[in-house]
Design brief:
single chain, 419 residues, alpha/beta, Rossmann fold, 2 domains, 8-stranded mixed beta sheet, 6-stranded parallel beta sheet
Length: 419
């Protein structure tokens, strides 16, 4: 079986900063190769000056790098409408680049792949007719769909994106949804449930290493923090989507109820993304810092900035509990990484967190934005360290089910049904 995996054409694989979809493609590809599948990844060139396809092998996977025929370098992050418009145009340009590559292969004979697996919508729309005409099945993984008023402007959320999704879903032989909530949302577009398959993201087995005292010690708690026995952690972008203010409000309540020996360690780029200026605070980060100062939480809340993979693992090994208070998430992979480290997770009732977290077994769920509910859960766990330990043990068992080797097997079974 031969599979062509198409990247979104944003960051070259492997993505050193951010790049969750790129990580998904590389990890899935690596495990599929171990199952005997012939995998090729079609990716963007490392440099804009590379104007011809280049082939390299990474972790046993053939990667073909092709140029994107144009780029839009202007930074439009301050304007949500323009930013989303730029992203769609970027995807369209990448889709054209992919189409030219496929057409060039056609001129040398029939296409060599059984299935082409897309991971962003516009390139699929651009290429679906060409692939279908040549007998190639199309698989699509939906990484980012969420029906939320916070997900964008009315025009994008209610008019343009539904049109895009309907076109993508009707053009695909099979759709992979990362959570049951995403699957339910996609089904509202009139697509048969038989076409939608819930296959989660995976985690690397390195996160399941035996809890390492030395690793925990390698992470030094910030000087001046009040942490002794209750360390609350958050990992992710410092972005309004993540609902970090909910966690800070819960921290204020803990303090007001006489809990003093706790610390909240927040790891992630202060800029809100993984750009080169990742630790220059955004307006949202500055707003959070102002709240911390106003409520006198500076000895309880520490921003760590961007962390390396090793630092992330060390931080998780130090944690008592992990909190992900997002207003929306398609998946929330970091929650699984925390569980694999033996850390119970408290998460908002969004996305795949509802699939992963079982109340009272490996963590707790709470209503997005409800600082009172989050506070009650944290206070209960602070007072019952024995229960905290049991939750952590169950969390590690949960994480084992999500190893990439298991996720790849399920994806391979889907491929076999289509071929």
């Amino acid at each position: 079986m031969k599979i062509l995996l198409i990247t979104p054409g944003r960051l070259p694989i492997p993505a050193n900063l951010g790049g969750a979809i790129e990580d998904y493609i590389l990890s899935l590809g690596r495990e599929l190769v171990s199952l005997g599948v012939d995998i090729t990844i079609l990716d963007i060139s490392r440099s804009f000056s590379d104007r011809s396809p280049k082939i390299e092998v990474l972790q046993g996977i053939k990667i073909v790098r092709i140029p994107k025929y144009a780029v839009i370098p202007v930074n439009l992050k301050s304007n949500n409408v323009l930013m989303r418009s730029k992203r769609l145009l970027d995807e369209f340009i990448w889709g054209i680049s992919v189409k030219r590559f496929i057409e060039a292969r056609l001129r040398t004979g029939r296409l060599p792949w059984d299935i082409v697996h897309f991971n962003s919508p516009i390139p699929l729309i651009v290429n679906s007719k060409l692939l279908t005409k040549n007998g190639i099945k199309v698989v699509y993984t939906e990484h980012t769909y969420f029906a939320s008023k916070r997900a964008g402007t009315f025009f994008f959320r209610k008019i343009l994106e539904p049109k895009i999704m309907k076109s993508v879903l009707s053009s695909s032989s099979a759709i992979i949804a990362l959570s049951s909530k995403t699957a339910s949302a996609l089904a509202t577009f009139g697509i048969s449930n038989d076409k939608i398959h819930v296959i989660a993201l995976g985690i690397d087995k390195q996160y399941l290493c035996t809890l390492d005292t030395e690793m925990s010690k390698s992470f030094e708690l910030p000087s001046g923090s009040n942490a002794t026995s209750f360390i609350i952690t958050f990992l992710g972008r410092i972005h309004p989507q993540k609902g970090i203010e909910t966690l800070l409000e819960a921290a204020k309540m803990l303090k007001e109820h006489g809990v003093t020996d706790f610390v909240i360690l927040i790891g992630g780029p202060l800029s809100g993304d993984f750009s080169v200026n990742k630790d220059i605070p955004s307006l949202y980060a500055l707003k959070l810092m102002k709240y911390i100062k106003k409520e006198r939480l500076k000895h309880h809340v520490v921003f760590l900035g961007h962390l390396t993979q090793e630092q992330k693992m060390a931080l998780l090994n130090t944690s008592s509990v992990f909190v992900l208070p997002s207003y929306y998430e398609t998946f929330g992979l970091v929650a699984l990484e925390a569980m694999a480290s033996g850390v119970p997770v408290i998460g908002s009732k969004v996305g795949a967190l509802c699939d992963i977290i079982r109340n009272g077994y490996n963590g707790y769920l709470f209503k997005p934005g409800s600082s009172e509910e989050l506070f009650s859960i944290l206070l209960s766990l602070y007072r019952n360290k024995g229960h905290l330990k049991e939750l952590g043990k169950n969390a590690r068992e949960t994480a084992r089910k999500y190893l990439w080797s298991n996720i790849a097997k399920r994806t391979y079974e889907l491929y076999k049904k289509l071929s």
